[in-house]
């Protein structure tokens, strides 16, 4: 993307609190109309990045632009952004319409314009007819919609959302994820979303920046981050995976060979690697098949079923493989359960392309 296509641009941004560096040399751009998520565990720096974009924190160093303008010296109310927090801060003594109109009234817009914008915002969030209700009369999901409408009614260039669904129960949270994505697509406003919930980020985002220790571990599309993680942290944080420690013993051509204990596994590295490189092999549980029978081209390991957990849509098998360790295998429950029982021998199989090879920068598997 060119600079003119970016709504948010951070270049070598760092933020320190005393001796603690919360954000360390972060650079990324958010395209116009994009749903962009900052994903990571608590304390990783994602909320600090959001607060710098909004203006509630100032960078210690680096450049921060919104729509091409350097905003480092601008206070929050002068930036073309608005923010939705986890704690919605709605005014309980006001009606829904009054809550949504509050920011427009502070700008002293004409009453007719305020009424028109509030009506449009209510329709956008599917709350038409709720304008005279008190906030205390609304459900959690309805209050969330009011907060979103209040933020969008001012027509920000960028809407910032800091874990806004964290207080909702699971079912309502999943419904609101789809609603947020619908709203974003409908209006085309750029959304920057902070979350620690991997499923939430995967459901809504166009791209995700995975943050760890104040740095970006990987920034990519949702499918690329899940299917081809570049670090062990990303592989383990996005979804679930088996991480096998090994050493590249044969390289060349499309397929290489990794020694994992006594086993020799065929893999397809993203880039050529020298022999004796210490690596981690990331293998998602759903990529492994329980056999026999198995395709002739598959890697094969023999093991014993240690445990079986029924999870509704699928069943998870824990299989102990001598010299390798325990591997999790997910089998979809679309058909009657496979005749595998705890204590029984099984064969595991997967294609070379299903495994992701992650070189270890320290020179050893960690």
Gross CATH architecture of the largest domain: 3-Layer(aba) Sandwich
| Net shape | globular
Q: Taking strands numbered 1, 2, ... along the chain, how are they ordered across the largest sheet?
A: 6-7-8-3-9-10
Largest sheet: 6 strands, mixed
Detailed description of the structure:
One of its GO terms (molecular function) is ATP binding. InterPro entries: AAA+_ATPase, ABC_SmlMolc_Importer, ABC_transporter-like_ATP-bd, ABC_transporter-like_CS, Mo/tungstate-bd_C_term_dom, P-loop_NTPase, PotA-like, Transp-assoc_OB_typ2. It comes from Tistlia consotensis USBA 355. Belongs to the ABC transporter superfamily. Spermidine/putrescine importer (TC 3.A.1.11.1) family. Part of the ABC transporter complex PotABCD involved in spermidine/putrescine import. Responsible for energy coupling to the transport system. The two termini are about 35 Å apart. This protein folds into two domains: about 5-230, Rossmann fold; about 240-360, OB fold (Dihydrolipoamide Acetyltransferase, E2P). It is of the alpha+beta class and about 375 residues long. Helix 2 crosses helix 3 (about 110-125) and helix 3 (about 110-125) packs across helix 4 (about 140-150). The chain has helices spanning about 45-55, 95-105, 110-125, 140-150, 170-185, 200-205, 220-225, 230-235; strands spanning about 5-15, 20-30, 35-40, 60-65, 70, 80-85, 160, 190-195, 205-210, 215-220, 240-250, 255-260, 265, 280-285, 290, 300-310, 315-320, 325-330, 345-350, 355-360. About 25% of the residues lie in helices and about 35% in strands. A hairpin with a 2-residue loop joins strand 4 and strand 5. A six-stranded mixed beta sheet has the order 6-7-8-3-9-10, with helices on both faces. Strands 13-12-11-14-20 form a five-stranded antiparallel beta sheet. The chain contains eight helices and 20 strands.
């Amino acid at each position: 993307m060119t600079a003119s296509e970016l709504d948010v641009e951070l270049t070598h941004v760092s933020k320190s609190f005393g001796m603690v560096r919360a954000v360390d040399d972060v650079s990324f751009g958010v395209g116009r109309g994009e749903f962009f998520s900052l994903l990571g565990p608590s304390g990783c720096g994602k909320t600090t990045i959001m607060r710098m974009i909004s203006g509630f924190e100032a960078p210690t160093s680096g450049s921060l632009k919104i729509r091409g303008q350097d905003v480092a010296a601008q206070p929050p109310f002068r930036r073309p952004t608005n923010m939705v927090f986890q704690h919605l801060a709605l005014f309980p003594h006001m009606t829904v319409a009054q809550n949504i109109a509050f920011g427009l009234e502070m700008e002293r817009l004409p009453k007719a314009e305020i009424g028109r914008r509030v009506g449009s915002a209510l329709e956008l969030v599917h709350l038409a007819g709720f304008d005279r209700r008190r906030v205390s009369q609304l459900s959690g999901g309805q209050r969330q919609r009011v907060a979103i409408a209040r933020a969008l009614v001012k027509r920000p260039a960028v809407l910032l959302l800091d874990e806004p669904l964290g207080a909702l129960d699971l079912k309502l949270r999943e419904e609101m994820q789809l609603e947020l994505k619908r709203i974003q697509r409908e209006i085309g406003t750029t959304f920057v979303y902070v979350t620690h919930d991997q499923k939430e980020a995967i459901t809504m985002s166009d791209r995700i920046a995975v943050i760890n220790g104040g740095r970006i571990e990987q920034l990519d599309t949702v499918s690329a981050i899940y299917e081809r993680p570049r670090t062990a942290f990303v592989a383990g944080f996005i979804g679930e995976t088996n991480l096998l420690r090994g050493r590249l013993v044969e390289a060349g051509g499309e397929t290489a060979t990794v020694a994992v204990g006594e086993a020799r596994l065929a893999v397809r590295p993203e880039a050529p690697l020298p022999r004796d490189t210490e690596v981690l092999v990331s293998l998602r549980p759903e990529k492994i098949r329980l056999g026999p029978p198995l395709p002739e081209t598959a890697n094969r390991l023999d093991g014993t079923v240690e445990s079986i957990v029924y999870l509704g849509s699928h069943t998870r098998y824990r299989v102990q493989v001598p010299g390798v360790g325990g591997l999790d295998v997910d089998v979809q429950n679309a058909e009657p359960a496979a005749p595998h029982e705890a204590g029984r021998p099984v064969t595991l199989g997967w294609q070379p392309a299903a495994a992701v090879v992650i070189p270890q920068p320290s020179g050893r598997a960690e």
